[in-house]
Amino acid sequence: MGRSKEFEESAVLKKAMELFWEQGYEKTSLNDLVRHMGIHRRSLYDTFGDKHTLFLRAVDFYGEVIKNRLTAKIAGTGTAKKAIECIFDFAIAGNNDRLGCLFVNSATELASRDKEVEEKTKKAFMQTEYLLRALIRKGQATGEFSCKYDSEILAESLHNTLIGIRVLAKTSVSQEKLHRIVDFSLAILSK
């Protein structure tokens, strides 16, 4: 008769996500994971497979956590502009620990040589870009934003700024500077 799990899978997956987020994939050893997750090596293999599979699951877990937090934050914003500002504020304020964004970190560390990581980060980036495009279209439809530029091009440009903000937020750049960059980038939406 097999042993039952002595841990909550989502709780230990969250711990793995946190460790990968803090240290990156390459610097995180199996010993680090076992110690940080508080489970036995055999349990790690039985539940999550190898380190790479665990990393991919941790990235998915991160995506769900961020999606849920961001959805909750923008739900009551009312206007497209407020929702977009909220997305940027979330990227700036959410990085007080300078960990950055796990998707951006994973893309820069692994995507060029790991097809599965590239697919996951590309999907996450596209989802953010689609969200921005939908908000821009909403703002254009209500007259809140100018229709001078195509919503797809605007979304691509704002997403590029958002990724840059996520990278800069990992450094000692002040939040004031990050907000100035965002304000300048969002000015293109105005009439």
TrEMBL record:
Residues 6-66 form the HTH tetR-type domain. InterPro entries: Homeodomain-like_sf, HTH_TetR, Tet_transcr_reg_TetR-rel_C_sf, TetR_C. It holds the Pfam family TetR_N. Keywords: DNA-binding, Transcription, Transcription regulation. PROSITE patterns: HTH_TETR_2 (PS50977). It comes from the Bacteria. Residues 29-48 bind DNA. This is TetR/AcrR family transcriptional repressor of nem operon. It comes from Pectinatus haikarae.
